[in-house]
Amino acid sequence: MYSLIVNLRSKLLVFLTHHMALPLLKLIRSPQKFQHTKEALHQLPEGTLGNELVLMLDEKNLKLLPYYAKHDIKHILLQYDTTDEGEVCLQCFMLGNKHLSFPVVATVVYGIITMPEYWSSLRKAYKRGSRCKPIEHWQWFTLLDQPVHLLRQKLDCELAISNCESSMERMKIS
Fold it and tell me: Which is more confidently placed, 162 or 80?
């Protein structure tokens, strides 16, 4: 029964994010379109944010979505996996980092309500975000050729405090 609930919860999260929120936000916000291809990202030096992004997409068998790339870049930089837990931890980090938006709040509330087994991880991600330097105004697409380890240093916060990050280590990204 538990696995059925987790499976349904996961499908609902994907549906709400990819099929409702993302198309709606494209209309409301007019986000910047990601201009790079996977092939171009593969040409970037090893260890750069853009190269790590394409390696993660390849490993996870994910498409490069032109209006979702900024979100995927945050997964790399902040070391949160693309699992349900990692998705909600990423948004908890953003909330703790003072980024208040509908998708952030909705995802955090969804996670708190439907994922009690991850409450500890969510709390740690929020606290981590509150300790880091603000990243809301970073120009994400200009950072693709930067070494990931230097960008993480710019965050100026402790990185390895959450269970969410340990799942990222399994992705072999760092």
Answer: 80
